[in-house]
Design a protein that fits this description.
Elements lengths: L16 H9 L4 E3 L5 E7 L2 E7 L6 H10 L6 E4 L12 E4 L3 E6 L4 H6 L3 H11 L4 E6 L7 H13 L6 H10 L4 E8 L2 E11 L2 E9 L1 H5 L2 H15 L4 E7 L5 H8 L4 E4 L3 E4 L1 H11 L3 H5 L2
Parallel strand pairs: 3-4, 10-11
Antiparallel strand pairs: 1-2, 2-3, 4-13, 5-13, 6-11, 6-12, 7-8, 8-9, 9-10
Helix pairs in contact: 1-6, 4-8
Length: 294
């Protein structure tokens, strides 16, 4: 068993039992390694590819052990939870590290409220004066639900890919009561919604959307506070709020960090495949600083 990040850090959604159940039900081949790491198997033509997303390994050698244990003749894609010098094991960099916002919910609710940024608190007060009604429920097993439709449209318009709707719904089916939908209503109209996926003692912000009237009423701020209060009451230790981009998505980054969340840099995406590594190792050394965040 390899060295791991201290247990005070939450298990990411991508390594959780809940995610494994969802992938298996979705027909996606997955494998739990002896050390507990979850690996996903895919094929590109005759070439097998394994992906290990956000493993809690503390060293490059730990990930090398995991990659070798797969016994794959194809490449292994590695996206560690923290920056690691994976060039040391012959891995090649593919994508530079992203940053996620993570909120520690272990303090009491009074402390969490005190940790809100002043402008965030002002928006919360504004929302609380708008006669909004918040409803919490398990996500309906309905691909036509307006939030899922809005998310699919946004992915198409902004040209990015997230979970397919069918996978989101599978998570709700395979993990009863762990897929929570928070909706803000202005009268009878749903003006904003937020879907939270619980996995063990952690939870992850999955998707959210606010209609124009919801943005006017600061409904998303109210929903996030309701999520924080619910999660803290349920004994959830950490709430991950997703990726932040302080250059191209400054507004969203401010919203997430305004909750008191801290920014955590991930480890980027690498490929480990000995035939390729030997060929491109000299080039990989040029990207060391970028992948380590230096």
């Amino acid at each position: 068993m390899f060295d791991a990040i201290p247990t005070a850090d939450p298990i990411p959604l991508q390594q959780s039992d809940a995610f494994e159940r969802t992938l298996r039900a979705f027909g996606q081949p997955v494998r739990r390694l002896e050390d507990g790491t979850l690996a996903v198997h895919r094929s590109f033509g005759p070439l097998p590819v394994h992906m290990i997303s956000r493993p809690q390994a503390a060293s490059p050698e730990a990930l090398l052990t995991a990659a070798k244990s797969l016994g794959s003749r194809g490449p292994v894609i590695l996206s560690p939870e923290i920056p690691l010098p994976l060039d040391r094991i012959g891995a090649l960099p593919l994508v530079s590290p992203n940053t996620v916002a993570r909120l520690d919910l272990r303090p009491d609710l009074g402390t969490l409220k005190a940790n809100l940024h002043q402008k965030w608190r002002n928006r919360l007060r504004h929302a609380q004066k708008q006669d909004l009604r918040v409803k919490r429920q398990n996500i309906p097993d309905d691909p036509g639900h307006w939030l899922l439709q809005a998310d699919a449209l946004q992915q198409s318009q902004r040209r990015y890919r997230s979970w397919p709707t069918a996978l989101t719904l599978a998570y709700g089916r395979e993990n009863p009561s762990q897929s929570k939908l928070f909706t803000a209503f202005w009268g009878r109209e749903p003006v904003a919604a937020m879907l939270i996926l619980r996995h063990g003692t952690a939870a992850t912000y999955h998707i959210g959307h606010a209609r124009p009237s919801g943005r006017i009423a600061s409904a998303h701020t109210l929903l996030m506070w309701e999520v924080i209060c619910w999660a803290q009451k349920k004994g959830i230790d950490h709430l991950e709020l997703g990726l932040i981009d302080t250059e191209e998505g400054q507004g969203l980054a401010r919203f997430k960090l305004g909750t008191g969340a801290r920014a955590q840099r991930l480890g980027g995406t690498w490929v480990w495949w000995p035939p390729m590594s030997r060929l491109f190792a000299p080039i990989a050394r040029l990207d060391r600083g970028l992948m380590r965040g230096t």
